[in-house]
Amino acid sequence: MQFFGGTEISPSPPAPTASGNNAHMLYIFNRNGVALLYREWNRPLKTLSPQQDHKLMFGLLFSLKSLTAKMDPTSADKGNLGVPQLPGQGCSFHSFRTNTYKLSFMESPSGIKLILVTHPKTGDLRDSLKYIYNLYVEYVVKNPLYSPGTPISCELFNKTVDQYVRGLG
């Protein structure tokens, strides 16, 4: 079966970009900013409550998407800064890097946002995010017991994502 990006879920996911577990956190938000999933692996410092952390991350994404759309050199119609745009509208970003982490981002056509925070030297994770999205479609969206817009509690999805992300570089 083909999903986002024309790829299939296969027993062989995209190859890790480096050795070891360099993943820190994974967020999945719906189009309304509701956190559907949050996982952390290597996060030694916890300064915010989960609700504050989710609001801060979604606000960061909203601001970066708005900023990159307004800086788009190919579009004359930029609208007002801060006005939400539809997925795929305007210019967007895939990742950014600081001296302590790298944030990789993908938004599906349905507005599902996947954010993976990793070690700063981690390579391109676009294929990995597409693979995680395909897992989401296969194990969560197609699950008749799942109610859209609620936190993900599918054990098979959680286990598969944990196993895959632990192998990422």
From TrEMBL:
UniProt keyword list: Endoplasmic reticulum, ER-Golgi transport, Golgi apparatus, Transport
GO biological process: endoplasmic reticulum to Golgi vesicle-mediated transport
Source organism, top-level taxon: Eukaryota
Location(s), subcellular: Endoplasmic reticulum; Golgi apparatus, cis-Golgi network
Database matches in Pfam families: Sybindin (PF04099)
The organism of origin for this protein: Erythranthe guttata (Yellow monkey flower)
Annotated SUPFAM superfamilies: SNARE-like
Signal sequence segment: none
GO (cellular component) term, any one: Golgi apparatus
Name of protein: Trafficking protein particle complex subunit
Subunit structure: Part of the multisubunit transport protein particle (TRAPP) complex.
Family membership: Belongs to the TRAPP small subunits family. BET5 subfamily.
InterPro entries, A to Z: Longin-like_dom_sf, TRAPPC
